[in-house]
Design brief:
The complex is a heterodimer of chains A (746) and B (83). Chain A has 746 residues and is α/β, with parallel strands linked by helices. In chain A, 58% of the residues lie in helices and 6% in strands. The radius of gyration of chain A is 30 Å and the shape is elongated. The chains are: A alpha/beta (746), B alpha+beta (83).
Chain lengths: 746, 83
């Protein structure tokens, strides 16, 4: 089969080999396969179509919410071969206003450093919104790359009375056009067939320039020449993109032109036609209107669903109340809905531990397996239902279009602290994990807005904090309930609220100090209401959950095993030996009470003299004012690998304290923890609250620090964030614990 | 036209919910006016003000069948002619 790249004059092998983003997503040798770029407006159903074509053969761009990163997948074709699909971020124009749109422009112009020039463009348009979205199509067709145009969601367009003469539109645009419904899979077979054939280059260049602009474009294109740009690309679209890239850094990608040259061309253009910036759109939309006059007929455009739903959802009083209710229901559902599954996983883990305990001979290996590995994995696995539920809710909110309404409602409130309404989605995603949240800030155009959002995103209670919250709430908060409302649920809600409040106060402070400046313009689309694309949702949630399990399977288990070692060795301290001798005596004499007490003492002594205990003891002076003992100190250290490790750390620590009985749950172990010397409770409810406050604010995640470094391009912001968050956490916990004690609690 | 008359030109934010108008010109930074034009707000295009957000800002408007949200301060830069 001849691929479109055969048409290119230079063989692709001469180009510098490039890695495809999210390396590991594609099999070895994948670069030799044809690459199809999926391009379209936000809300064109692009990602749903991508999910349908690739199914589970993709590397999920990690995160629900907007497509903030480039995801890749393989699409099987009728002939038995496959093509690689890359799902580029949604874009309104090839003249970028955000890092997201920059990626789209750079990939399509063949100047991106990580993704090679695609062989084919799959251009996805919402069939009911052609009068606006065709403008992007004109820009894309102007590139002259082999292109297939997809009119997506034709079912909705038909319902709304859009009649499109597809063959006429094909003739006008000079590209093959297909009609699809991504949600149901309608029209995808024909699309796969088309991808199996060589895709022609468009026969029409519908984007025109004025004489003055055209002259500068051609002059700059001549400077660019053939050297240094990807084979198969046209110099004129590159030149035009360069001229439009005012204040951008696109020129750095093209070594053959100097920034001063571009500025000179731009100055001449400015002199000849001061309106040149808006001319592209003015001409483009005139063309679009002319085309649509020929090929479409609109019977009616009313969207009764939108009108009726919006009247309620964005109502002055009902709207905000509904929003609060939706958020409240989500968190209650996460807490209550996940419980049965969590219990099941917990029971399964101890059942498995029991089997191992019965079959394996006693010794350090069995101890490692049961108390290190199985306990660690099991504990973390049991929080998977909560995480999956959260991703599900975020996905549903986004798919239905409610997320955009929430941002619409909240923009004014967010504005109070200087954040754009658009920061709402990254911040909401941060409830799942700060990493996708921070990456989702790429849709925020203004750098100051974006930095402020990145900085406060980790204050949102991520799913890794949930295990810790759940453990501590389970241990210290009585499960009182009033109808559907439960006290543990309320405490969880309060913790989330606490994170939000601190985030907003911090954002407010940042926007008045280091990030002072006006709020950037942010125009946001309010998409039509749609039923969720369940298939894509399931794909995303599955990918997310697998990712979490993988993380649990590697980092957590490794940390658990290391911890087991740290907590079990070196052993043999004189005090421990003395206690062990007394324990043996007590056991022989049948003194049950003494045996139990001594067992606890032996465990405590072993731990205190282990490597882990030494680290915890060293930390104790710093954290004692917060109500934390050295055992929590151990947990604080290990949780820097990932917050949820705190839970498996505590599990290891406490299971070692009572190794003979694995069925005693961790919650109970913590609640019943006694100081081996005094016999008093080690942890009072106030300790639990102080610890939860600490976890709510502290930056205890190496991954977050790493991603902030990557997104901000330096160490300044991650270090500032790390210091600020941990100092705040210490101060807040100090205030809670000391204040609480002064008032006579705990 | 006096500057006062210019400033009192009708703008998108000044429309009542449900009112329609034609775009005359988009004022603002080059970036802003370019993006507005790319979204289809070129001179002569019909826009319809839909509603204000619950807290008064931003506002929702329709252009070429697509609904957008925009802050009042920016919507004031979108000068219109009443139909």
């Amino acid at each position: 089969m001849s691929s479109p790249s055969d048409l290119a004059p230079a063989p692709r092998e001469t180009r510098v080999p490039r890695a495809i983003p999210l390396s590991g997503a594609l099999p070895a040798g994948a670069r030799r396969q044809r690459l199809v770029a999926v391009v379209g407006n936000p809300n064109s159903g692009k990602s749903t179509l991508f999910n349908c074509l690739t199914g589970l053969r993709q590397k999920v761009a990690n995160y629900p919410g907007v497509t903030v990163d480039v995801s890749c997948g393989r699409c099987p074709l009728p002939s038995g071969s496959t093509v690689n699909l890359v799902d580029l971020p949604g874009a309104y124009s090839l003249r970028p206003r955000s890092p997201d749109e920059e990626i789209v422009r750079d990939v399509l112009l063949g100047i991106d450093t990580t993704t090679p020039l695609p062989d084919t463009i799959l251009l996805v348009l919402d069939a009911s919104s052609l009068d606006r979205q065709l403008f992007l199509a004109l820009q894309v067709l102007d590139l002259g790359l082999p292109t297939i145009l997809v009119l997506n969601m034709v079912d909705i367009a038909r319902e709304q009375g859009h009649l499109i003469d597809r063959p006429a539109l094909e003739r006008r645009l000079g590209v093959p056009i297909f009609e699809t419904v991504g949600r149901t899979g309608e029209g995808l077979d024909a699309l796969r067939l088309a991808l199996d054939q060589p895709v022609p280059r468009p026969t029409v260049r519908p984007l025109t320039h004025s004489d003055a602009t055209g002259a500068e474009v051609r002059a700059l294109a001549a400077r660019i020449g053939a050297r240094g740009r990807a084979a198969g690309t046209d110099a004129e679209p590159i030149a035009w993109a360069l001229l439009c890239d005012e204040g951008g850094r696109m020129w750095q990608r093209l070594p053959q032109v100097a920034e001063s040259d571009i500025a000179a061309h731009r100055a001449r253009l400015e002199a000849a036609d001061p309106e040149w910036r808006s001319a592209e759109a003015a001409r483009g939309f005139a063309t679009v209107e002319a085309i649509l006059l020929e090929v479409t007929r609109k019977v009616s455009s009313a969207d009764p669903v939108r009108r009726r739903v919006d009247r309620i959802v964005t109502h002055r009083i009902v709207g905000p109340l509904l929003f609060a209710l939706v958020m409240g229901v989500i968190f209650q559902a996460i807490y209550a809905g996940a419980q049965p599954v969590m219990d099941l996983i917990e029971r399964g883990t101890s059942w498995f531990g029991g089997i191992l305990s019965a079959t394996l001979p006693a010794g350090p290996f069995r101890s490692l397996l049961i108390d290190g590995v199985v306990a660690g994995v099991g504990t973390v696995l049991s929080f998977l239902p909560q995480i999956a539920l959260l991703f599900l809710f975020i996905g549903i909110l986004e798919d239905t279009g409610y997320l955009a309404r929430a941002a619409f409602i909240l923009d004014r409130l967010m504005g109070v602290v200087g954040l754009p309404g658009r920061a709402f989605l990254p911040l909401l995603s941060s409830f799942a994990c700060a990493i996708p949240g921070i990456m989702a800030t790429r849709t925020i155009e203004n750098r100051r807005d974006r930095l402020a959002t990145i900085f406060v995103a980790p204050f949102m209670s991520c799913s890794a904090r949930l295990p810790v919250y759940a453990l501590l709430i389970g241990a210290f908060v009585p499960s009182l309930g009033w109808g559907p409302v439960s006290l543990p649920g309320l405490v969880l809600f309060a913790l989330y609220l606490f994170g939000i409040v601190v985030a907003f106060v911090t954002a407010w402070a940042l926007r008045r100090t280091v990030l002072r400046g006006p709020r950037a313009s942010s125009v946001m689309e309010l998409p039509p209401y749609r039923t969720p694309a369940w298939r894509g949702l399931v794909t995303t949630i599955t990918g997310q959950s697998l990712e979490f399990v993988k993380k649990a399977g590697t980092v957590i288990v490794a940390v658990s095993a290391v911890l087991w070692f740290l907590a079990s060795y070196p052993g043999g301290a004189p005090e421990t030996r003395a206690l062990q001798t007394r324990l043996a005596v007590a056991e022989q004499s049948g003194d049950a009470a003494a045996t139990t007490a001594l067992k606890t003492s032996v465990a405590g002594s072993t731990l205190r003299h282990s490597f882990a205990g030494q680290i915890g003891l060293a930390l104790e002076p710093i954290i004692q004012p917060l109500g934390f003992d050295w055992r929590i100190g151990i947990g604080l250290v290990t949780s820097f690998a990932a917050r949820e490790v705190m839970v498996s750390t505590m599990a290891t620590v406490w299971n070692l304290g009572d190794a003979s009985d694995n069925t005693v749950s961790l919650r109970q172990a913590i609640r019943e923890a006694k100081n081996p010397e005094t016999g008093a409770s080690s942890y009072v409810p106030l300790t639990g609250i102080s610890l939860m406050v600490f976890f709510a604010l502290a930056c205890q995640c190496m991954s977050t620090v790493a991603v902030v470094r990557r997104e901000t391009g330096g160490w300044k912001w991650p270090i500032l964030m790390l210091v600020t968050m941990n100092v705040l956490a210490w101060l807040a916990s100090f205030a809670v614990f000391q204040g609480g004690r002064a008032m006579g609690w705990g | 036209m006096t500057p006062t008359a210019f400033l009192s030109d009708p703008h998108l934010a000044g429309l009542l919910p449900g009112e329609r108008a034609l775009v005359r010109r988009v004022h603002g930074s080059p970036d802003f006016s370019r993006r507005m034009s790319e979204l289809g707000l070129v001179p002569g295009t019909e826009v319809r003000m839909v509603r204000r957000a619950p807290f008064g800002d931003p506002i929702e408007f329709v252009v070429r069948g697509t609904h957008f949200s925009i802050r009042r301060a920016e919507a004031e830069g979108i000068r219109v002619v009443a139909i």
